[in-house]
Amino acid sequence: MLRFFLVLLLVVAAVQADNDVSPLEDYWRSVLPNATMPRAIHDLIYPGHRNNRVTIQECVVFYYVSSNISSQHLTPGYLQSKIFFMKDLYPGAQLKGVHLINRTIIGNFFVPRTEADAITFTSKNLPKILEHFSMTSDSKAVKLMEDTLNSCEVPPLKGEKKFCSTSLESLIDGVSSLLGTRDIQAISTIINEPQDEKMVYNVVAPIKKVSEQEKLVLCHPQPSPQAMHYCHTSSLYKVYIVPLVGNNGSMVNAIAVCHHDIKNFKPFILEALNIKSYNEPICHFLSGDQLVWFLNQ
């Protein structure tokens, strides 16, 4: 009899666990059965406390080549703390002043596609977006929303393809379209504890190239009341998984993006970094909520 009740409890617990699984996670499993869900996706499906207050921790790196960015947004000090040369990325190297964070944007989350598609996310439709999310027209959030929509509408760079998604379903569809298959994987930087801005990191082995294929898609979260991503692909950068150990013993599995063609970078960026030649690749780490997608090997 006791064994019967134990079995019954296990069955009830299993049913309860299944009931706790989000339909969005079920969707991921159904369309990407061979892909492990990265933390950057999981945290937008299960965000904990939900509200419409979105906090911007940091601007995202793809703005380095955006047409509407200026030296007012990216100061020399900020750039020098984020970008390093590829020649300095080797086991045993020390990286100083690199501040790694889990989330560039806090407070938003994925909504079902039917809900996301109920409103068109374009700059022309901004008044309706503000009304839908009860945003006042003079708030700072509105300017961020404008920047989000404008960045999605700016034409892609030469040799680049891009899209913006407003749901998990449209994110997977867009990435699958760019990569030509749903046999794909996604990864993100793994940070297990808050990192100090003055942290010194030691690069440890092994540094792994993410994919030998040329096809990669990078996705950056955008300021929006609901989860929104700006995704782009290009053959002009390489991506690496770089294990880091901080001087306090903390460990980070960081994703580094190295740009091999920097001719499109703004002149003030190259000047701030004292770059004299276009031939030297430069790199930056992705925060924990940015994604790299690639073909299954």
Automatic annotation (TrEMBL):
Signal peptide positions (record): 1-17
Signal among keywords: yes
Domain BURP: 83-296
Domain of life: Eukaryota
Keywords on record: Signal
SMART domains (alphabetical): BURP
Pfam entry (one): BURP
Keyword Nucleus: no
Protein name from the UniProt record: BURP domain-containing protein
High-level lineage: Eukaryota, Viridiplantae, Streptophyta, Embryophyta, Tracheophyta
